[in-house]
């Protein structure tokens, strides 16, 4: 059953995002209020990076006044809607990633997280 699942089947579609020009403190507050560990960074709908709670913690308190663009990861591993879940889970396991953005021609359309994978497996 899991062999047939693709990213679109389990991706989170209602996403919380941030902008590269937002202040890190605002992104951190959004993560806390939305109970998420990271935010995709978009510019006119296009995925340009991702910032995580871990990024903010490692940067320290002085980073809160910086722009998201200063801290976000820019070299991302992404999936397409048709990417098999087994391929995504292998990437997550090998690289230690907790979230993989799903894009369609560079436009953010979803997010695969460890939690969404667990929910999908529990539903099988």
Structure description:
The protein has six helices and five strands. By secondary structure, it is an alpha+beta fold. Strands 3-4-5 form a three-stranded mixed sheet. A hairpin with a 2-residue loop joins strand 4 and strand 5 (107-113). The longest helix has 11 residues, at 24-34.
Topology:
Layout: H1 7-10, H2 24-34, E1 38-43, E2 46-52, H3 53-59, H4 68-71, E3 79-80, H5 85-95, E4 99-104, E5 107-113, H6 114-123
Parallel strand pairs: 3-4
Antiparallel strand pairs: 1-2, 4-5
Q: Give the low-confidence spans.
A: none
Distance between the termini: 7 Å
Give the overall form: elongated
Number of helices: 6
Q: What value does the average pLDDT take? A: 93
> Which structural class do you get from the secondary structure elements?
alpha+beta
Q: What's the total number of strands?
A: 5
Strand order of the largest sheet: 3-4-5
| Portion in beta strands | 15-25%
The helix-strand sequence is HHEEHHEHEEH
Largest sheet: 3 strands, mixed
* Gyration radius, in Å: 15 Å
Relative helix content? 25-40%
């Amino acid at each position: 059953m899991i062999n047939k699942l693709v990213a679109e089947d389990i991706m989170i579609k209602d996403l919380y995002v941030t902008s590269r020009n937002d202040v890190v403190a605002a992104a951190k507050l959004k993560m806390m209020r939305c109970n998420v560990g990271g935010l995709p960074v978009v510019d006119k709908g296009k995925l340009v990076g991702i910032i995580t709670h871990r990024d903010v913690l490692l940067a320290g308190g002085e980073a809160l006044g910086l722009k998201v663009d200063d801290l976000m990861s820019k070299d991302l591993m992404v999936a397409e809607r048709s990417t098999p879940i087994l391929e995504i889970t292998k990437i997550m396991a090998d690289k230690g990633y907790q979230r993989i953005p799903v894009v369609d021609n560079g436009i953010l359309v979803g997010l695969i997280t460890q939690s969404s994978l667990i929910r999908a497996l529990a539903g099988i």
